[in-house]
Amino acid sequence: LPAEQIRSIYKTLGETQPERIAHELQELDEGNVGLGILLILIITDPNGMELCLVSSEAFEPAIRDAADFLGPDYKIREKLAIEYAEAVAEAKKETPDTFGWAV
User: Which end of the chain offers a freer environment for a tag, N or C, measured as fewer CB atoms within 10 Å?
Assistant: First the structure.
């Protein structure tokens, strides 16, 4: 979102629903890398889910510069997914009554 809109949201929520501001507005000076001021605001939606709002003036150029536009390595993703599933299954076997959702 544009920085002006983020500041407006922050001001409005601060006046009307301050409980929805999860973290105060942060301003990071990214001028040393040519991006200017990056605004970060974390708020909650009406259901309590957190949303991170960032200023497009600094964020979008940073993303564009960091992108290599290559697709994901699906072989590595599959390998990591299998390793993770195996680790979870092993951990669940070792502590079946205290693992995650079983508590």
Answer: C
